[in-house]
Amino acid sequence: MDAAQRFDLNTTVHQAHIASQKLAQLSHPDRNQLLRCLAQILQDRKDDLLEANTIDLEVSRNLAIPTLVLNWLKLTPERLQTLGLMLNQLAATADPLATGALSDCMVASGYAKSHPRGVVAFIYEAFPDLALLLAGMCWKTGNALLLKGGVETQHSNQVVIELLHEALTQVDLPLFGTQSLPCDRNLSITDLVAGDLPIDLVIPYGRPSLVQQVVQHSPLPTLQSAMGNGYLFWSDSGGVDTARSMIVTSHQGFPDAVNAIEKVLLTPNIKQSRLTLLWSSLKEKGFELRGDAALAAEYPELILATKEEWQKPYLQKIVAFRVVDDLADALNWINRHSSHHADCLVTDSYQDSQQFIQGVHSAHVFINTSPQFLRPSSGPGGSPAIGMSSTNSFAPGVISLDTLLTTKQIIQSV
Questions:
Q1: Does the domain at residues 230-377 carry the CATH identifier 3.40.309.10?
Q2: With 80 as the cut, is the pLDDT of residue 121 above it?
Q3: Which residue, among 232, 331, 223, has the nearest Cα to 282 in the 3D structure?
Q4: I want to staple 233 with a disulfide (CB 3.0 to 4.6 A). Which of 105, 122, 330, 331 is the partner?
């Protein structure tokens, strides 16, 4: 970048920083009014957004954008309707900036108060509706937002920022608090995250290559968002129906299968009849099945999974199976190879469940229940959420309103 471009970026981020201070001072009713205003504008202009999205889809197909990303990119009236419901749901939730619990000591008393992080930078691939949802979440929590989408969603993002600015204008708030950054080469990811800029949180969202690029170059607090490559250990006591249901529903996340189970570990004691039953059921659901060397040699219907596959997400309806010695061996393998955001166990043994909970290094652990991720209701208390981050992240777990907040401790003399 030349000096003028660097100055523009510096000015933009500092303007967002100043605007974040005004957003943080907004009353809860005013923040809710802003969210309801955005929901109404989205309803009024949904056709404009769908038209722009159609152009993006046509251009992206010509650019040979992968089908996975095209599915993330494609908006539908139903998807926008769900987004509007989520925005109104956010407006109806309690104030996340409310004062926390009191504490007392002999010479002073104090309390914890939730506080906005400040300026959030969202670097994302496709998902134009996700930019609108995160903007709503930032407004609810009093944060400013910088949006850097990919070239595949350029036309959609132009309408997205128009909707956001229209809402800000209607309630007389500075437009600098929510800005869209260039998606072309004039502003690289490194330019945004590696500089000495007042950005308080970076959220990358998309394929692992994008997330890793941001994480590797960012000295700023960064969420290592994760999707796919969830592991399931199917213990000898676990039921076939439970395992099948957990796998199938995990791939039915909306609008993307964030917590998809893509790897299954089992012991040598598992009965062939149970495996055959599970595999037949998965094949009927359109899954491709793979296995380690031992399983692939014994069962020709399994495709051999390479060494590299065990620590990478497929982000498709593919499940690979591997034999491990026991629960301890399974935990060791999962802790080395999973995405560390959602790992699962099927068992009828309480002892096994406790050992798994204590031993697995995952932000979320699911025992005999599906890890299915539904964006409208996967946050705390059934609130909207963006996605998941791994235990290696700045803030492990569900990316929700709580993720966009920090805590101040206020102590005063009695």
A1: yes
A2: yes
A3: 232
A4: 330
For the chain, what percent of residues have pLDDT higher than 70?
95
- Please confirm whether the linkage preceding 96 is cis (ω < 30° from 0): no
Crossing angle (nearest 10°) for helices 154-170 and 28-44: 130
Separation between Cα atoms, residue 219 and residue 281, nearest integer Å: 46
Q: Taking phi first (over 0 means left), then psi (-120 to 50 degrees means alpha), and beta for anything else, what does residue 397 get? A: left
Q: Which fold has domain 3-100+112-224+393-413?
A: Aldehyde Dehydrogenase; Chain A, domain 1 (3.40.605)
Residue-wise pLDDT tens digits, 84-94: 999 999 999 99
Q: What is the mean pLDDT of the chain?
A: 93
Cα–Cα distance for residue pair 95/97, rounded to 1 Å: 5
**What Cα–Cα distance (Å) separates residue 342 from each residue in 15, 43, 134, 204, 227?**
37, 34, 22, 18, 9
pLDDT in the model for residue 3: 41
Instruction: For residues 243 and 248, give the distance between their C-alpha atoms in angstroms, rounded to a whole number.
Output: 9
The confidence score (pLDDT) of residue 350 equals 97
| Whether 380 contacts 137, CB under 8 Å | no
Exposure of 77 by Cβ count < 10 A (0-12 exposed, 13-18 middle, 19+ buried)? Answer: exposed
Cβ 289 vs Cβ 302: under 8 Å: yes
**Measured distance CA(139)–CA(153) in Å, rounded:** 23
Sorted by where each begins, the domain ranges of the chain are 3-100+112-224+393-413, 230-377
Please give the Cα distance from 258 to 26 (Å, whole number): 33
Token readout for 362 is: 């995952």
pLDDT of 412 reads 81
